[in-house]
Amino acid sequence: MSKYGNIKTVTSDGIKHDSIKEANRWCELLLLQRAGVIQDLKRQVKYELLPKQEGERAVYYIADFVYTENGKKVVEDSKGCRTEAYKLKKKMMLYFHGIKIKET
């Protein structure tokens, strides 16, 4: 069992997800894409928040899902537990990239 109680899950399309909640949302988004409600669905999209510095690694935020809805890009995260690191990265995404993360 993981630290936050999530259970890694594989969907029928063979994709591994970090939680049941994330897997279920992926299936919902696939249906929305097939219905034409959303487009360009991607998963695990990496955004750089701080570049690599001397003696330090770069800091990244990895979005669970990114897609286009009504002509606008949506960055989405399936959250069960909002950690302090996530809260900080969410603020950094808004500040550095102008992207507000949609939580499901």
What does this protein structure show overall?
There is one protein chain. This protein is of the alpha+beta class. It has helices at residues 20-34, 84-97; strands spanning 9-10, 16-17, 38-50, 59-69, 72-77, 102-103. The chain has one domain (9-103). The protein is built from two helices and six strands. The mean pLDDT is 93.
Poorly predicted regions are none
Structural class designation: alpha+beta
Task: Count the beta strands.
Answer: 6
The H-and-E topology, N to C, reads as EEHEEEHE
As for the number of domains, it is 1
Please give the alpha-carbon distance between the first and last residues.
22 Å
| Portion in beta strands | 25-35%
Radius of gyration: 15 Å
User: Mind describing the biggest β-sheet?
Assistant: 4 strands, mixed
Helical run tally: 2
Major beta sheet, strand line-up: 3-4-5-6
Average pLDDT works out at 93
Shape assignment: globular
Give the helix level as a range of percent.
Answer: 25-40%
